[in-house]
Write a structure and sequence with these properties.
This protein has 11 helices and 17 strands. By secondary structure, the protein is α/β, with parallel strands linked by helices. Helix 11 links the parallel strand 16 and strand 17. Helix 4 packs across helix 5 and helix 4 packs across helix 10. The two termini are 15 Å apart.
Length: 323
């Protein structure tokens, strides 16, 4: 099968590799996969990953063991973390925090930038026919956005600010709005400002946000993917407010702890979330993803696809498409 392979030196190459054949797992033919900020960070060394990246996908199950035969032919999306189910992490916090977990396209498991991948059936969710391919690619990132509402109380009257109007930031903003929050987006550049405005959000420029809105919000979500985003988010919440950290990036960031202690700010790390809720929101049309997509490419044009994705919009790879 054709696969995009990330080498340890950070280069991507299109190569032929054997189809996955993992006992106890389903073989999935990938029909579409999205490039996200984490994939771009992997190229910079994030998580020390090498192999096939990509974790936002939709596909069709083409092979399974006898116990999972009912999945064959089903269109699916997949939760990306595979846990052992036995360790302390799994018992206390679920497979997402397994001590020996693998993560699709991120940690010790090949991902979706290939014609096929494999996952246990326990990770799979059926995708309704009413959700088209492009929209289905967003199930995983919308689920990640929905994780915020599991961790923080969001409802009518909640004042929320999203720092970063990129792919993930705009999804988090829509999820919080769907649950009643009054949402403002901090944007940098005309592209993010335009998209946010088209989706009906109030925006403020990054260079003016702290000066004009410091200590104004109940909840701030850092979705910038950059070290500076955390400082901006912490400056925007009022005392005893909550900062949700969604950014994943290569490298470290310095943190001034004194303001966090003095203002009694709650810091919440936030990662993967509920697929069922994401599918429900997308199927009901409550999350609009089409304005976020700016291109669909075959695997053979991966270099163009990644260059396009670096400009901030969602780009999708289609392994079924001819060159």
């Amino acid at each position: 099968m054709r696969s995009l392979v990330l080498d340890p030196d950070g280069t991507l190459a299109l190569r032929d590799r054997p189809r996955p054949d993992v006992a106890g797992e389903c073989l999935i033919r990938v029909t579409a996969a999205g490039i996200c900020g984490t994939d771009l960070e992997l190229l910079r060394g994030y998580a020390g990953f090498s192999g096939v990246p990509g974790h936002e996908f939709v596909g069709v199950v083409e092979g399974a063991g006898p116990e999972d035969a009912a999945w064959i032919g089903r269109r699916v999306a997949g939760e990306i973390t595979v846990g052992c189910g036995r360790c302390a992490g799994c018992r206390v916090a679920g497979r997402g925090h397994c001590d020996v977990r693998t993560v699709v396209g991120i940690r010790d498991r090949d991902g979706a930038f290939a014609e096929y991948l494999s996952l246990p059936s326990a990770n799979l969710h059926r995708v309704p026919d009413s959700i088209d391919e492009v929209t289905a690619v967003f199930i995983e990132p919308v689920a990640a956005a929905c994780r915020v509402i599991e961790q923080v109380t969001i409802g009518p009257g909640t004042r929320a600010v999203i720092v970063g109007a990129g792919r993930l930031g705009l999804l988090v903003a829509q999820v919080l709005r769907a649950h009643g929050a009054d949402v403002t987006l901090v944007t940098r550049g005309e592209g993010g400002r335009s998209l946010a405005g088209a989706l009906g959000f109030e925006t403020v420029a990054a260079d003016a946000a702290v000066a004009s809105l410091a200590r104004s919000f109940d909840v701030a979500v850092d979705a910038t993917g950059e070290a500076a985003g955390f400082a901006t988010a912490t400056a925007l919440v009022h005392p005893r407010g909550t900062v949700v950290v969604k950014s994943t990036f290569h490298g470290e960031t310095s943190v001034s702890f004194s303001p966090l202690v003095v203002d009694e700010i709650t810091i919440v790390g936030s990662r993967c979330g509920p697929f069922d809720r994401a599918i429900e929101l997308l199927d009901g049309g409550r999350i609009d993803v089409k304005p976020l997509v700016s291109g669909v490419y075959p695997l053979a044009r991966f270099a163009h696809a990644f260059d396009h994705a670096r400009r901030g919009s969602k780009v999708i790879l289609d392994p079924t498409r001819a060159e």
